């Protein structure tokens, strides 16, 4: 997955793949998963399996993930406990069972600040947060860049008051 090579990744899945992330559940055909994969790839994700234990037809993993989006919202990687369920030598379900040491209040505050600022200063990008297509990810990335380089940032205001 670190190479963002869809052809390699999709070869590990059955005809469809089910993702369960806490109470959020989605099932994708291989072609539907391609859209989400393309969205994620825009942010240049890096995954690292920190622990791996095989339990029958399941793989239990501790996974680290970071990317431009996560580094902005979480200020570093986040870690998940995941269970990969295997049938007929292919992954048919991935359960994210726990976020380990997830900084939810930081993530939420940074996301809300980003969304509010973009709505006010760049309405052409409004809605980027919900668009999980490649185009939506490109808008998300642009929103982060604009926000990080904004002229109304605290550091600019502080510099002006010191003159």
TrEMBL record:
<protein>
    <submittedName>
        <fullName>Uncharacterized protein</fullName>
    </submittedName>
</protein>
């Amino acid at each position: 997955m670190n190479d963002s090579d869809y052809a390699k990744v999709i070869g590990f899945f059955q005809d469809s793949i089910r993702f369960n992330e806490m109470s959020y559940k989605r099932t994708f055909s291989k072609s539907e998963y391609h859209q989400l994969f393309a969205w994620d790839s825009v942010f240049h994700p890096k995954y690292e399996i920190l622990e791996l234990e095989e339990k029958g037809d399941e793989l239990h993993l501790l996974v680290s993930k970071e990317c431009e989006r996560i580094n902005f919202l979480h200020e570093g990687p986040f870690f998940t406990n995941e269970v990969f369920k295997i049938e007929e030598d292919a992954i048919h379900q991935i359960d994210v069972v726990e976020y380990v040491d997830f900084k939810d209040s930081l993530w939420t505050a940074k996301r809300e600040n980003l969304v509010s600022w973009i709505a006010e200063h760049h309405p052409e990008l409004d809605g980027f947060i919900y668009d999980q297509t490649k185009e939506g990810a490109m808008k998300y990335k642009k929103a982060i860049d604009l926000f990080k380089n904004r002229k109304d940032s605290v550091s600019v205001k502080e510099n002006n008051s010191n003159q």
